[in-house]
Amino acid sequence: MNENIYTTDDILIKTGKVILILLLFITFSGQCIQYFRYSEKNSFEVKFKTKDGDTYQTEEILTNSTMRKVIKSDPLKFFKNKFQNLETATASSKNNDDYDLKFKNNSKIKNQTVKDINQLIHETDKIEYLREKYPNSILVQKMEESKRSEIVNQSLRIFSLILIIGGIIPISFLFAGYKIRTKENKILAIKAMLEKSLDTSIQDIQISTGLTKKFILEAIGVINLRGFGYFVIDSNSNRIMDARLRTEWILIDKCPSCGAAINQKVTLSLNNAPECPYCKNPFPWNFLNELKRKTINEIYSQEHSKEQIIQPIQLPKRNFSIGIFLLLLILIWPLAIYYAISRDKKRS
Fold first, then answer.
1. This prediction's pTM
2. What is the pLDDT of residue 128?
3. CA distances in angstroms from 123 to 89, 147, 187, 204, 329, listed in the order given
4. Cβ–Cβ contacts within 10 Å for residue 27, how many?
């Protein structure tokens, strides 16, 4: 079962990934659209002359899609330039992009249906259309390659700038999310160590994980508060132990030194070194640790043999609102990160 100490990391990471994917899609598709719009066959320049004798020009992007709409308004005019002795040209009833051509009776060409009109649209057709659209123009020509390349490169620089500046937002969300997740993984690692041993020294945890004592103590508080366990810290021995060790007992039936029957109980925490009431000799630590190890193993095996899985305590949530989060994300995105973290921070 996957355990989650925090929920904020999932929210921030997923949000960051979605924003990053959208940003990449918008910038990439926008650049592709610009590249297609200003392709060699779609880019034209129309020049005009003023009354003062000065000239100026405008750019025209004329795609095949636009030309198909123009042709649909008057198909006969277009097809007459392509075929001689054409009598009628009408859109097919089956497909509006297909045209049924009917020729005069004396024509050698048989009636036919044009299915791919794109093959009939040429550069000259687009220039002729622009001349009709701008009757006052003095020149209609293809856009120069250098100018077309400059426009495409300019759009590339703009979209790259959008990606760089806009990328700060998803990167911030991902950074905050993964930072919290890293902290969560460290806490879960400490929890796993404590569950296996039930009693270990802080120094051993430091050596094994490389974490500071301050962080380890903070992690114990989080684990206890979230209901993933209940561990106590013995400041005298500098050890962390399962709280059950203070309530569970070891039964010593006889003294290992003098052999007297004593039936003495001592706590598993072994805070004080017990001694025999008869010979007054303290019990050897290796003897006590062996009894302690057996009892801990019994506790551990009993706990993991239960069929019912005990769920962590669900603490009251601080009413995280997706609506507020999305609104802050749109208006002031840094506050969205703060809002997500603050909903979880009071619970840790």
1. 0.64
2. 92
3. 21, 18, 68, 79, 47
4. 20
Mean pLDDT computed over 151-178: 92
As given in the structure block, the two tokens for residue 268 are 């598993």
User: Tokens 């003095």 label which residue?
Assistant: 138
d(CA 209, CA 212): 9
**Each residue's pLDDT tens digit, 95-143:** 777 888 898 887 777 888 888 888 899 999 999 999 999 998 999 999 9
Alpha-carbon distance of 41 to 35, in angstroms, equals 12
Q: What is the rounded CA–CA span in Å between residue 158 and residue 86?
A: 49
Question: Sign (positive/negative) of CA torsion 209, 212, 215, 216?
Answer: positive
Show the CA angle centred on residue 168, arms to residues 162 and 169, nearest 5°. 100
pLDDT in tens, 12-48: 999 999 999 999 999 999 999 888 888 888 999 999 9
